[in-house]
Design goal:
433 residues; 21% strand; Aldehyde Dehydrogenase, Chain A, domain 2; alpha/beta; homodimer; 4-stranded antiparallel sheet; 41% helix; Aldehyde Dehydrogenase, Chain A, domain 1; 17 strands; 7-stranded parallel sheet; globular; 15 helices
Chain lengths: 433, 433
């Protein structure tokens, strides 16, 4: 089947999936967990095929590690499915209820977006996670995984389709796109895909954003800042800086640039240098930094760079205003942190720093869907509309306006003898019966 | 000042405007109302200049009427400002509050999107309405009005900037783009504009959507349907059909296509034809329609056409499934209505019809921000993300994740001896003090 037909089928399935009740969706999620356990030998065998080919093609060790799907990972995926079953159905929630007039009631009711396209890295567990989030939220999904995981993904998608089909979920709701050309083709499917979620390198996400009319949810850069205020606890600042930079260096919520208030620079910078150097972190500093500690110079380019590596840039600032201006100019709107003992100053920082995540006295690394209590996440967004920061089920929802009338016409509410609207808030939600 | 500089200033102003307290914004809105009354002679004079030029250029009568700004319209605009002052500040609302661990609290707090670009028709009252909605919601705004209203818009923008500046609103928050080339230029300003709202013709909105990376909120087509179910009250169906089609024919929420259940077609269609013909509405029918009443034939093209005129297309359908399939295939996701005496069937229609507004037993014409009780509207959206249907203040908002810690680092929550998260819902909102 070609990609357009797969997308068309997903659109058709999405219409019916939107009206499927919670029990059927939860039943399907349980069935998926069962089949993954039952057929684990088939899955592991498929994964060995992928791993073998990847080894022959000399795939780098970290990529091989992500590609590996073990019995333990299958069990983790099943635990994820169990916890998803426990969550409330995000579909059908009444977001507002208003009486416009006698027997004319308006309800804003949550519903799925429709068809979500996800381009994801070579991690087979991501396929299970993303497709189950889409199923729970009533969305059809088109999946394009890394080609390295092709055999595993194919088996997983087939099993998920089989188990969900048995539970009464409309066929075609999950489409796996398998050929090389598919990523390019997917970008033109704006009639049948409502939202694209690319997970991958910055360059890849940017490429997608530049080449499609479909709304894209995601982040290109993650240039995260840590501003150490003059009212900061120095040891706390050091602890947070090390965690933010070193706890996991290759991820979007890792620290890239530190901004240090001039009043504490002479105290903090030598300690910071010692702590970073003990962890093999290269420091690149502004002129004022280099007057206090001997480090490499930072250039204009450093302030714009997401290192994703053991490198940090440091700038001494005259005041919090300069720090905020720097962040708003060079930042990517992902995660920015202030370390300060003054709550009022932290609130001001949060008011004026234009980022998805603005934290006081904790690590940038907390910016994550699981830590935020969202359950699994489909990604992190630096968009300014729809969903921002870690995105869980909620980011896969939109709403419809449902109005229940009894022959009401606008002509009665217009002109000289116009009836007024009551616009009275209703306490009840939308009732299906 | 060139357009890039105006946009850059708006970006800078938006950062400060995001932190401006409610009182200052309401004070500014009151100041704008005052200055519009004080300077009404200047405004009316500017408008006479525009009207005179438009008359010389033989602008069509309906356009002239929209362009006209009278003392009455100034008073209406001031009433709109008064009611906006009464509304709660949409900025700073706590959308969720969660304890992650002892002294580590996460808040999802509403904030402005940033800089909104609005391209609007030649209606000077639209300038007042849009800029005041943006001010209340803490957004900077770049306005591009129709050139016919250039003189009036210039005077209005100056007065609004003057009054808001006196109330302490950061300069540059309102930018008026005045040259012809500006619409094209605005599309490339994706660094400094977060959301574009084009109001105007379908072709114009589509052109904008196709030529910018900036997210666009709006609707291209408004192909609205009325499905008359076999369980419908015939006289109610007639009343709603006439109101939906004729109450205001040139707007996006007017009816374009009727779908009639075969079981009631023989009863309904002759009455429908009489009612429409009495109002000079041309009917184009499918083959089955034409077997019952003598009307012009509808072609495939008719089902895809937004007439915005005294024309309606009618199709007889075998059942509700066929009606819903037709709507999901040909509709534009704007407003679709079912007339039926059976609430369960209406709910099913609402579940499966993929549109922003799905109504039972009332006119399509109710799809409107004022009627929906949203106060003023910035537009109607057929997007599938962010905001859908009539969009008021809420559509101009997004959120930040604000986290308050006390030296918390992720390393403590990872690995073998990982601390668990409490993920306990907090009852309190985010506190500024």
């Amino acid at each position: 089947m070609d990609i357009k037909a797969i997308a068309r089928n997903a659109r058709k399935a999405s219409i019916r999936l939107a009206g499927i009740q919670s029990e059927a969706k939860n039943h399907a999620l349980a069935g998926i967990a069962d089949i993954l356990i039952q057929k684990k030998d088939v899955i592991l065998k498929a994964n060995r095929t992928d791993i073998k080919r990847a080894e022959q093609e000399n795939l780098a060790a970290p990529l091989l590690k992500r590609l590996l799907f073990t019995e333990e990972k299958i069990e983790e995926a099943c635990k994820g499915l169990e916890s998803l079953i426990q969550l409330d159905d995000p579909v059908g929630a009444t977001l507002s209820a208003l009486e416009l007039d006698d027997r004319l009631d308006l309800y804003k009711v949550s519903c799925p977006i429709g068809v979500v396209g996800v381009v994801f890295e070579s991690r087979p567990d991501a396929l299970v996670q993303i497709s189950s989030l889409c199923l729970k939220s009533g969305n059809a999904v088109l999946l394009k995984g890394g080609s390295e995981a092709g055999t595993t993904n194919h088996v997983l998608a087939d099993l998920i389709a089989e188990a969900s089909g048995k539970a009464g979920i409309p066929k075609g709701w999950l489409g796996l796109l398998e050929t090389r050309a598919d990523v390019r083709d997917i970008l033109g499917l704006d009639d049948d895909i409502d939202l694209l979620i690319p997970r991958g390198s910055n360059a890849f996400v940017r490429h997608i954003m530049d080449n499609t009319r479909i709304p894209v949810l995601g982040h290109a850069d993650g240039i995260c800042h840590l501003y150490v205020d003059r009212k900061a606890d120095i040891s706390m600042a050091l602890k947070i800086a090390i965690d933010s930079k070193c706890q996991y260096v290759a991820v979007c919520n890792a620290l890239e640039t530190m901004l240090v208030h001039q009043d504490i620079a002479e105290d903090l910078l030598p300690k910071l240098r010692a702590a970073f150097e003990a962890r093999n972190v290269e420091i690149r500093g502004c002129d004022r930094t280099r007057r206090i500690v001997e480090v490499k110079p930072a250039s204009e380019k450093d302030w714009k760079t997401e290192y994703l590596d053991l490198i940090v840039s440091i700038k001494v600032v005259a005041d919090m205003e300069e720090a905020m201006d720097h962040i708003n100019h060079y930042g990517s709107g992902h995660t920015d942190v202030i370390v300060t003992g003054d709550r009022g100053r932290a609130v001001r920082f949060m008011d004026y720093v234009d980022a998805a995540n603005v934290f006081m006295n904790c690590s940038t690394r907390f910016a994550d869907g699981f830590r935020f209590g969202l359950g699994a996440e489909v990604g992190i967004s630096t968009n300014k509309i729809h969903a921002r920061g870690p995105v869980g089920l909620e980011g896969l929802m939109i709403y419809k306006w449902r109005m229940m009338g009894n022959g009401h016409v606008v002509a009665d509410y217009a002109g000289r003898n116009a009836k007024p609207f009551t616009h009275r808030k209703l306490q009840k939600g939308f009732e299906r019966e």
